[in-house]
Amino acid sequence: MALIEFTTNNKVVADPSTVFAVSNDVERPIICKSPERLKLLLGAIAPCKSVHYVSKGDWSMHDLVMQLVNKYNPATIYMTTYALRETPLRQLVMAQQKGLIASLNMLIDYRAKVRTPEVYQLAAMNANKIAMVAIHAKVCVIQTAAISISIVTSSNWTTNPKIEAGVVTMDKAIGDFHIDWINKTMDNANIFRADQ
Questions:
Q1: Share of the chain above pLDDT 90, in %
Q2: Band of the pLDDT at 25, cuts 50, 70, 90?
Q3: Considering the chain, what is the average pLDDT of its residues?
Q4: Statement: residue 16 has pLDDT above 60
């Protein structure tokens, strides 16, 4: 399946076997089949645009984030995940040591301490802020003085050969929304109460 481009009049230019429905011209679906497709995804990210993607194990969440952090830095990272493994975490730590990540804020599932205690300890030693809750959401916001990129995805911070899907949005308001609920949850606020 090819990269799908949308013109300003909402006409789709695509492989004839591909069908997508969109409501406006800011959505750009991409099938990511290899690291080359990851490059296409990175090239499609632009201010006030959303890019929807599907991938199958050719690259992982940390590959996408590291590419973005290499381009946009120093970055503050806000991330949530159900599962975290050593290789992705070590890439974050190395980016911190190189000065590419200025602040790392992690909201991870509370069972990480039991499932992967060594990985949790490494995260606790290196994150600027870390909290544990019952969470299945996978969100990452990469923020610099100039940009805010939000990734909402099915992908955990692992290496996974399964089909994953997600949306990458370069929009400050979207980034602020995710940062707000992540920070409040990290500070033990009940964001789901009616009076919040």
A1: 67
A2: very low
A3: 83
A4: no
End-to-end CA distance of the chain: 44
Paired strand residues for 96: none
Q: Which of 154, 116, 114, 110 is nearest to 134 (CA)?
A: 110
Question: Is the whole model's pTM more than 0.85, yes or no?
Answer: no
Residue 97 token pair: 């040591």
CB-based contacts of 150: which residues, under 8 Å, 6+ apart?
Answer: 139, 140, 141, 168, 169, 170, 171, 174, 175, 178
Determine how many CB atoms are found less than 10 A away from the CB of residue 142.
Answer: 25
CB atoms within 10 A of CB 161: 9
Domain spans, the chain:
60-155+176-186
Q: What CATH number does domain 60-155+176-186 carry, 3.40.50.11740, 3.30.870.10, 3.40.50.720, 1.10.10.10?
A: 3.30.870.10
